[in-house]
Amino acid sequence: MKRIMIVVIGSFVLALSGAWKTATAQTFPASVKDPFFGITYSPANVHFDAMPLAIGKRCKDIKRWRYVHSWIYSHVKKSEAEYFIVYGFIRAEDEKNPNGFSVVPEDDDGLIVELRSDGCKVDQWQFVLQRETHPTKDKPILLSDQLMDELAANLLARYARAFGGKKNFLSHLTEKAKDELPQSLRGQLEKFEQE
C-alpha cells in the first residue's frame, strides 16, 4: 500500500512539475517588428529600457495586457504627469497546451500611458499621436503640440541609442515607413536627420 501511495504521489509531482515547466519556461520570440518604423530586430541585440514596474502597479489597464517583458520607446516627465510609450511581449493562451502559455509580441502597436498622482490613462499611441479619438475611450489622452514633439524627440533619441547610434538607426528606415508616421513624429524625424 505504501509503495502504491509513493508511486501515485510521485506521478502527481512529476505531472505538476511538467505543467509548471510548460507555464514558466517560455522563450521570447527571436525578433520583433517595431511599431513605428517597421524595423525587424532582435531584442537580444537591440536594447530599449525596460518598462518600470511602477507603471504596472499603478495602472490596472497595463496589467490587463499581461506583459511578460516590455520596454519603453518614449518617456517624457512633466510636473503634472509622466508619459510613456510602451510595447512588449504578452502572455497568450497556448492552443497546443492548455496548461501553458505562449509569449508573443502584443497584437497592437503599443500603448501610451499617462501617469498622474491621482491615477493613469492608457490608450493606443496611434490614436493619441494622430489626434484621433479612440472609439472606446470616454477620457482620451490629450497632448499639446509641444508634448507630442517632446515624445517624438525622445523616441528618436532612444531608437538611436538602442540601434548603436543615429547613423545605424537611420540606415534601417525606409521612405515608406517615414511617410506613414504621424505628422508630429515625421516633423521631428526631419529635424533629427538634419542635426
Task: Give a quick rundown of the structure.
Helices cover about 40% and strands about 25% of the residues.
Strand-helix topology:
Layout: H1 2-24, E1 32-33, E2 40-41, H2 53-58, H3 60-64, E3 67-77, E4 82-93, E5 101-105, E6 111-116, E7 119-124, H4 125-129, H5 145-162, H6 166-171, H7 175-179, H8 183-194
Antiparallel strand pairs: 1-2, 3-4, 4-5, 4-6, 6-7
Helix pairs in contact: 5-8
What are the key terms here?
195 residues, globular, alpha+beta, two-stranded antiparallel sheet
Explain what you see.
The protein has 195 residues and is of the alpha+beta class. The protein is 41% helix and 23% strand. The chain is built from eight helices and seven strands. The strands form two sheets. Strands 3, 4, 5, 6 and 7 form a five-stranded antiparallel sheet that branches. A two-stranded antiparallel sheet has the order 1-2. Strand 6 and strand 7 form a beta hairpin. Helix 5 packs across helix 8. The longest helix has 23 residues. It is globular, with a radius of gyration of 21 Å. The N terminus is likely disordered.
